[in-house]
Protein backbone atom coordinates (compact mmCIF):
# COMPACT_ATOMS: atom_id res chain seq x y z
CA UNK A 1 0.00 0.00 0.00
CA UNK A 2 1.29 3.46 -0.90
CA UNK A 3 2.27 5.55 2.13
CA UNK A 4 0.68 8.95 1.43
CA UNK A 5 2.36 10.64 4.37
CA UNK A 6 5.77 9.46 3.19
CA UNK A 7 5.01 10.73 -0.32
CA UNK A 8 4.23 14.14 1.14
CA UNK A 9 7.59 14.06 2.91
CA UNK A 10 9.33 13.13 -0.35
CA UNK A 11 7.63 15.91 -2.31
CA UNK A 12 8.38 18.42 0.44
CA UNK A 13 12.05 17.40 0.45
CA UNK A 14 12.17 17.68 -3.34
CA UNK A 15 10.61 21.14 -3.29
CA UNK A 16 13.12 22.32 -0.70
CA UNK A 17 16.03 20.84 -2.64
CA UNK A 18 14.98 22.01 -6.11
CA UNK A 19 13.89 25.47 -5.00
CA UNK A 20 16.96 26.22 -2.88
CA UNK A 21 19.63 28.46 -4.43
CA UNK A 22 22.03 26.35 -6.50
CA UNK A 23 23.88 26.41 -9.85
CA UNK A 24 20.74 25.88 -11.95
CA UNK A 25 18.55 28.32 -10.06
CA UNK A 26 21.31 30.91 -9.94
CA UNK A 27 21.68 30.78 -13.71
CA UNK A 28 17.95 31.01 -14.27
CA UNK A 29 17.83 33.98 -11.90
CA UNK A 30 20.74 35.65 -13.67
CA UNK A 31 19.25 35.22 -17.13
CA UNK A 32 15.82 36.39 -15.92
CA UNK A 33 17.30 39.54 -14.40
CA UNK A 34 19.58 40.39 -17.31
CA UNK A 35 17.91 38.93 -20.43
CA UNK A 36 14.23 38.72 -19.54
CA UNK A 37 11.53 36.11 -18.98
CA UNK A 38 11.55 34.38 -22.36
CA UNK A 39 15.28 33.65 -22.27
CA UNK A 40 15.05 32.45 -18.67
CA UNK A 41 12.21 30.06 -19.59
CA UNK A 42 14.34 28.56 -22.36
CA UNK A 43 17.15 27.93 -19.90
CA UNK A 44 14.67 26.53 -17.37
CA UNK A 45 13.28 24.12 -19.99
CA UNK A 46 16.77 22.67 -20.47
CA UNK A 47 17.22 22.30 -16.71
CA UNK A 48 13.85 20.55 -16.41
CA UNK A 49 14.80 18.12 -19.20
CA UNK A 50 18.09 17.30 -17.45
CA UNK A 51 16.31 16.88 -14.14
CA UNK A 52 13.80 14.43 -15.62
CA UNK A 53 16.65 12.41 -17.13
CA UNK A 54 18.42 12.08 -13.78
CA UNK A 55 15.10 11.36 -12.07
CA UNK A 56 14.31 8.51 -14.48
CA UNK A 57 17.78 7.08 -14.00
CA UNK A 58 17.56 7.31 -10.21
CA UNK A 59 14.06 5.79 -10.11
CA UNK A 60 15.11 2.84 -12.25
CA UNK A 61 18.41 2.31 -10.47
CA UNK A 62 17.18 2.65 -6.90
CA UNK A 63 14.17 0.39 -7.54
CA UNK A 64 16.29 -2.30 -9.23
CA UNK A 65 18.92 -2.26 -6.51
CA UNK A 66 16.37 -2.47 -3.69
CA UNK A 67 14.57 -5.33 -5.43
CA UNK A 68 17.74 -7.45 -5.48
CA UNK A 69 19.50 -6.20 -2.35
CA UNK A 70 17.33 -4.80 0.43
CA UNK A 71 20.45 -4.04 2.51
CA UNK A 72 21.57 -1.61 -0.20
CA UNK A 73 19.02 0.81 1.28
CA UNK A 74 21.51 1.43 4.09
CA UNK A 75 24.21 2.45 1.61
CA UNK A 76 21.81 4.70 -0.28
CA UNK A 77 20.71 6.32 2.96
CA UNK A 78 24.32 7.07 3.86
CA UNK A 79 24.99 8.67 0.48
CA UNK A 80 21.71 10.59 0.56
CA UNK A 81 22.23 11.70 4.15
CA UNK A 82 25.76 12.92 3.50
CA UNK A 83 24.61 14.82 0.43
CA UNK A 84 21.80 16.52 2.36
CA UNK A 85 24.24 17.49 5.11
CA UNK A 86 26.50 18.92 2.42
CA UNK A 87 23.59 21.02 1.19
CA UNK A 88 22.96 22.15 4.78
CA UNK A 89 26.55 23.35 5.11
CA UNK A 90 26.40 25.02 1.70
CA UNK A 91 23.16 26.81 2.55
CA UNK A 92 24.59 27.89 5.89
CA UNK A 93 27.65 29.37 4.20
CA UNK A 94 25.48 31.01 1.56
CA UNK A 95 23.51 32.72 4.32
CA UNK A 96 26.66 34.70 5.11
CA UNK A 97 27.27 35.70 1.47
CA UNK A 98 26.88 39.43 0.93
CA UNK A 99 24.38 40.85 -1.53
CA UNK A 100 27.28 42.36 -3.47
CA UNK A 101 28.87 38.94 -3.97
CA UNK A 102 25.53 37.48 -5.09
CA UNK A 103 25.07 40.30 -7.60
CA UNK A 104 28.55 39.65 -8.99
CA UNK A 105 27.75 35.95 -9.47
CA UNK A 106 24.48 36.52 -11.32
CA UNK A 107 25.97 39.24 -13.51
CA UNK A 108 28.73 36.94 -14.72
CA UNK A 109 26.52 34.74 -16.90
CA UNK A 110 27.07 35.12 -20.66
CA UNK A 111 24.32 36.58 -22.88
CA UNK A 112 22.97 33.96 -25.30
CA UNK A 113 19.44 33.32 -26.48
CA UNK A 114 17.05 30.85 -28.11
CA UNK A 115 17.80 27.15 -28.39
CA UNK A 116 21.37 27.66 -27.19
CA UNK A 117 19.99 28.60 -23.79
CA UNK A 118 18.00 25.36 -23.72
CA UNK A 119 21.15 23.42 -24.61
CA UNK A 120 23.12 25.17 -21.89
CA UNK A 121 20.47 24.44 -19.29
CA UNK A 122 20.34 20.77 -20.32
CA UNK A 123 24.12 20.37 -20.40
CA UNK A 124 24.53 22.17 -17.10
CA UNK A 125 22.18 19.73 -15.35
CA UNK A 126 23.46 16.61 -17.11
CA UNK A 127 27.05 17.37 -16.13
CA UNK A 128 26.16 18.13 -12.51
CA UNK A 129 26.54 14.93 -10.42
CA UNK A 130 24.86 16.71 -7.51
CA UNK A 131 21.60 16.62 -9.48
CA UNK A 132 21.74 12.81 -9.59
CA UNK A 133 22.67 12.63 -5.91
CA UNK A 134 19.69 14.83 -5.11
CA UNK A 135 17.38 12.45 -6.97
CA UNK A 136 18.96 9.44 -5.26
CA UNK A 137 18.32 11.09 -1.89
CA UNK A 138 14.72 11.82 -2.91
CA UNK A 139 14.07 8.27 -4.10
CA UNK A 140 15.71 6.80 -1.01
CA UNK A 141 13.37 8.79 1.20
CA UNK A 142 10.37 7.45 -0.68
CA UNK A 143 11.36 3.86 -1.44
CA UNK A 144 11.97 0.90 0.80
CA UNK A 145 11.93 -2.90 0.66
CA UNK A 146 8.15 -2.95 1.17
CA UNK A 147 7.23 -0.14 -1.21
CA UNK A 148 4.95 -1.14 -4.14
CA UNK A 149 6.41 -0.84 -7.68
CA UNK A 150 4.09 2.07 -8.50
CA UNK A 151 5.69 4.27 -5.82
CA UNK A 152 8.72 5.11 -7.95
CA UNK A 153 6.50 6.16 -10.87
CA UNK A 154 4.35 8.34 -8.62
CA UNK A 155 7.43 10.02 -7.13
CA UNK A 156 8.94 10.59 -10.57
CA UNK A 157 5.74 12.02 -12.05
CA UNK A 158 5.07 14.25 -9.06
CA UNK A 159 8.63 15.56 -8.89
CA UNK A 160 8.64 16.15 -12.66
CA UNK A 161 5.61 18.43 -12.30
CA UNK A 162 7.22 20.15 -9.33
CA UNK A 163 10.41 20.60 -11.36
CA UNK A 164 8.53 22.39 -14.13
CA UNK A 165 6.73 24.58 -11.61
CA UNK A 166 9.87 25.46 -9.65
CA UNK A 167 12.38 26.14 -12.41
CA UNK A 168 9.95 27.94 -14.69
CA UNK A 169 8.63 29.75 -11.64
CA UNK A 170 12.12 31.12 -11.00
CA UNK A 171 12.20 32.39 -14.58
CA UNK A 172 8.90 34.20 -14.13
CA UNK A 173 9.39 35.50 -10.60
CA UNK A 174 12.91 36.82 -11.02
CA UNK A 175 12.02 38.70 -14.17
CA UNK A 176 9.86 41.02 -12.01
CA UNK A 177 11.47 43.80 -10.00
CA UNK A 178 9.23 43.64 -6.87
CA UNK A 179 9.88 39.93 -6.22
CA UNK A 180 13.59 40.34 -6.80
CA UNK A 181 13.71 43.16 -4.27
CA UNK A 182 11.76 41.12 -1.71
CA UNK A 183 14.00 38.09 -2.12
CA UNK A 184 17.14 40.12 -1.62
CA UNK A 185 15.80 41.42 1.68
CA UNK A 186 14.91 37.96 3.01
CA UNK A 187 17.64 35.93 1.29
CA UNK A 188 19.80 35.24 4.32
CA UNK A 189 16.85 34.19 6.46
CA UNK A 190 15.63 31.89 3.70
CA UNK A 191 19.01 30.23 3.29
CA UNK A 192 19.40 29.86 7.06
CA UNK A 193 16.06 28.05 7.16
CA UNK A 194 17.16 25.82 4.26
CA UNK A 195 20.32 24.87 6.17
CA UNK A 196 18.16 23.74 9.09
CA UNK A 197 15.78 21.74 6.87
CA UNK A 198 18.59 20.04 4.93
CA UNK A 199 20.42 19.21 8.15
CA UNK A 200 17.33 17.64 9.70
CA UNK A 201 16.56 15.58 6.58
CA UNK A 202 20.18 14.42 6.32
CA UNK A 203 20.29 13.32 9.96
CA UNK A 204 16.95 11.53 9.50
CA UNK A 205 18.44 9.41 6.72
CA UNK A 206 21.71 8.71 8.54
CA UNK A 207 20.07 7.78 11.85
CA UNK A 208 17.21 5.73 10.39
CA UNK A 209 17.51 2.00 11.10
CA UNK A 210 15.08 0.74 8.46
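^ C-alpha coordinates above, recovered residues below v
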Amino acid sequence: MIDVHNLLLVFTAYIVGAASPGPSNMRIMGVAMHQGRRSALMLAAGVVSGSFFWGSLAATGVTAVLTQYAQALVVLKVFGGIYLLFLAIKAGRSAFTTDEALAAQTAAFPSVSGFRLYQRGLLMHLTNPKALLGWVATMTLGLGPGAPPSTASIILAGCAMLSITIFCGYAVVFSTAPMLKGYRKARRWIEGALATIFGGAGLKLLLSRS
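The chain has a mean pLDDT of 78.
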